Amino acid sequence: MALDLVGWNVVLDSDRADELSAFYEKLLGWTRFKGEEYTVLVNLEQTGTPTWLTIQQVDDYVPPVWPATLDKQQQMAHLDFHVQDVEEGVKYALSCGASISEHQYDDRWRVMIDPAGHPFCILPPIMPWM
Q1: CB within 10 Å: which end of the chain, N or C, has fewer?
Q2: Which class for 107: exposed (0-12), middle (13-18), buried (19 or more C-beta within 10 A)?
Q3: Which residue intervals define the domain Glyoxalase-like in the entry (predicted)?
Q4: Angle at 95 between CA 90 and CA 125, to 5 degrees
Q5: In what order do the strands lie in the sheet with 38-42?
């Protein structure tokens, strides 16, 4: 048995939800629907089960530390974006306001940091384990 999905969503917290949603709107090219407490970004071009990303306003948000450090806020999840050209993807993410993490663990992909401190990865289309 499995869930009968009609869509799926990832929620990211931020103390500057509007700024973070604008970053992901530009990065992904998705459509932004702004609410009072959260903003939803939807891939309107997608067929099949819809995907969306929600940015939730959390006034006392504490950014995670990457990589993990004892006694510091830990990441709970991160996003992976598979692209045709990793270096071009990194350049574009930088132009949108991301930064490159000081810590990289593999030369096939890049760990990036969004404006609210969430790590995300830019990866090639197919990784060796796929």
Answers
A1: N
A2: exposed
A3: 10-123
A4: 25
A5: 8-14, 51-57, 38-42, 31-34
For 128, counting Cβ atoms within 10 Å of its Cβ (0-12 exposed, 13-18 middle, 19+ buried), the class is exposed
Q: What is the pTM of this model?
A: 0.83
Q: How many CA atoms lie within 13 A of 40 on its CB side?
A: 10
Which residues, 6+ apart, have CB-to-CB distance to 118 below 8 Å? 12, 63, 64, 75, 78, 79
Per-run averaged pLDDT (10 residues), the chain, 130 residues: 75 92 95 85 81 91 83 79 93 97 92 93 76
Residue in the block written with tokens 């949108």: 96
DSSP 47-95: -SS-EEEEEEE-TT--PPPSS--TTSPPP---EEEE-S-HHHHHHHHHH
pLDDT attached to residue 26 = 96
